[in-house]
Structures are given as C-alpha cells and as structure tokens.
Amino acid sequence: MGVSVTGAAPASRPTAPTPLDRVIPAPASVTPGKSPYRITRGTHIRVDGSRETRHVGEYLADILRPSTGYRLPVTDRGAGGIRLRLERGGSGAEGYRLDSGPGGVTITAAAPAGLFHGVQSLRQLLPAAVEKDSVQPGPWLVAGGTIEDTPRYGWRGAMLDVSRHFFTVEQVKRYIDQLALYKINKLHLHLSDDQGWRIAIDSWPRLATYGGSTQVGGGPGGHYTKADYKEIVRYASSRYLEVVPEIDMPGHTNAALASYAELNCDGVAPPLYTGTAVGFSSLCVGKDITYDFVDDVIRELAALTPGRYLHIGGDEAHSTSHEDYVAFMERVQPIVARYGKTVVGWHQLTGATPAKDALAQYWGLDGTSAQEKERVAAAARNGTGIVLSPADRIYLDMKYTADTPLGLDWAGLVEVRRSYDWDPGAYLPGAPASAIRGVEAPLWSETLTDSDEIEYMAFPRLPGVAELGWSPASTHDWDAYKVRLAAQAERWEALGIDFYRSPQVPWPAS
Length: 510
Known about the structure:
By secondary structure, the chain is of the alpha/beta class. It is built from 15 helices and 17 strands.
C-alpha cells in the first residue's frame, strides 16, 4: 500500500541507456557509440522475407508491445526502426552483430539463431520494465554503438529433472523462456529415474501409466503424452533450444522395473519408489528382453526428437557389475546410432568404450580422484567430447549456504561466486581444450516441487553458467560480473522470477 509524503519529490526514472557491455553473457566485442536509439510509437520492426526472420520479429514484438503500449508492426518494408536481417558471413550459426544509433537498431546474423540471440541482448539493453505485461512510462532507449558476438562453446545446456518431481508442460515452457534470455541452447530433460518414468512409450504403456504414477515423497507424479513432449520440443525450438532427452540406464531404473516384472533378473517387479537413495536398481543385463525394451524406447523417443542427441545416462550403476556395465553399453550405444542419434552419457560411460562421436557429461568434483579424472581425460584425448557439469560448481540443486531451505549439499555448498569462478577450458587436467564441447547446469528435483523453487535455485547461478559457455575467457572477471549480475535483479522482478539474494552480489536496494 503506497504512502504519500507531502513535499517528497516523485521518484524519477533513469533516462541514461544501459551500456552495451552490461549484457549477460558478456559479448565478445563492444564498441560504444554516441547517441542512443529511442523506441517510439512510430517504431516498426523490419524483417527480410524469410519465415524465420519474421518469427524472431514477432517474438520481439510480443515482448515489447505490452510494456511500451506501441503497435510495433512487423513488416518487410521501409527503413529505420528495429531491423533484423540474415546475411551470410563469419558470425557462425549463433553469432550476431548489433548496431545502434539515432536512426535505429540493426541486428545482423548468418542464421536465425543468431538473430534470436541478438534479440536477447537487445532486451537486456532496454529498461527492465520492458518485461512487464502492462504499459510502462519508458523512455525506451538503446545505447548507441556496436556489439559483435559469437559463442565460445556450442553446448550451453541446462538439465531439468522431471523424474524426482514431475513438472507440467507449462512449467517446462516457463523455464525454457528463462534459459533463452541468457542464450542457453540445450534443454536436457531427465525423463526417467527410480521415482518416475515421464514419457509415454506405446510399446510399453505401463512405463508411463504405472511407472509415472508417483514421485519423491509419494505425490501423484505424472507423465508427458507424446503430444505433450512434441509441444515441449516445438516450444524449445521456437526459442532456439535443442531438447536432449535422457533415459537413464542400466541403473536409476526402478520405475521401469516396477512397471514390467520381466525386466528384472528374478522376474519379480519391485514396488514403486518414492525415496531419494541411489544406486540400488539395475536392468537385467543378461536378458534379451532388456535390449528389446531399450530398442523400443530409443526408437520411439528418437522419432519424437528432431535434435541430434539422445542421453543414455549410465551413472551410479552400483548394482551392475563392471563387466555387465561394459557389456550393456556395447549393446545399447549401437541402438542409439541405428535410430540416427548421437550418444550422450554421464562420464561413467568412459569406463566402457564410448561410441564414435559420443559425448561424456562430467559431473565430478574438484576433489574427484585423479584416476577418475584421467580416465575421462584419456577418453577426451581419444575423441570423446566432454560437456562439463562439475557438481560442486554448477549443480543448481546444491544449497547456496547451510541455511538454504531447498536443495542438497552432498557436493558441498555452492555460492554464486563459486559457480562462476572457474574456466571450462582449463578445468579437466589432461583433456585437450578442443575436446570441451561446453557446459551444462543440471537441476535435480529431489527437493523441488514448483516453478518458484526451480527459479530460486537457478537464479542467480544460471546466468553465470551461461556466461561460462558463451563469453570469451578474456571477459571472465568476478568483480565486473557481480555488478552486471546485480543489475539483472530488476528484470527478474519484472518477470516474476524468484531468486536468492546472495550477499556476494551488490544488489540494488529494493
């Protein structure tokens, strides 16, 4: 409830535009200019004739119209205003150039994804109130100058565990929109685990209807129909994120084992599981039906997934002998290839023989044994690509401090600076820099039940992971980054994003 104080001056809105170098992730190159561009009632969004460019233009208009109150027609005619254009050049599939001056803003890219990423930078250059869904006073200034930008790594991922707790299509879409703001380009969905199977498989229907009927703590669970999953894939694609589905195996499989007795070595189905322990379940490696099951699941999931990758898990298979694990991976990896996908697995996959072009996702700690790190590095030297997800750096479900009400602490406490302050290119001893494909921030959901809780654990750490994946190593500086990060708080508030106000960050006074 507002209180009027007689004689108090009205709060004035800042009129200076946001500097070009305030963006997260930090751009590769910034050249400040002089006069800004001002979005007005007469501004048009000008696109070339391509369907993709028009799609990005309409996306931008949908963001700007509610807060500005302007019509902002998307058109392929005229000059000036905000211009989006595709032009062959050296910016790669995701790079872009943003030029701003009194006459307009032009975003140029070699591919539609680059235009979309350029739009995210433009969003951040506008006042945070641009994110609101009601008309705001403005002014809507974009600083003058040029950004030339291209990502350091091609894999900039976020994983959402929908198995421990189930999240609806709308909740996943909300997270996708938050990831897109920071130029994340992979959404890894952890679709199966001991506590729940979350994707409908026509040839094994009880996986979803029975195996998906619960979650941690015994709630109702849930699963995605094939139409639901296609909608997530479509929506992610509209934000230039590729969905990487994961079916974890041979461990983390109790939901499947409970659904079909014949997948168990003794032919007896265990009860559904709602706890949080790991490592107790395993598919029966010696049974042929196991591979019929895997083939059916991968075939149906691959057919739903236009992206290149399919994740087969492979971690914490403590109930599977080493010999069985190696034999299982030797049979399963070719199945993935048969259906046109490239294998991704947790880094335990390097204990077997990774398939050609496979990626290993490293989730070890700073303190992981030198022997285990060297096994992963040796695979990297042998051609296996590495995606870095060190648990004591960028597992977003780790508590910030001992007092954090959500999350776990088995990998340690991970404050904001710790999650940002490391170099992916130099992290894994003995792994060639060329083998590092990028970074991914997993968010496991043992303790998370809704979007507010997802956001509280992801923010403010997620933008830092995005910067590690996108920005040149030369831009990496905690003291400068924490100031840019603090400036994001007003935008998150405008978007309704819950976040942790880390004392390490100089947040503006509310």
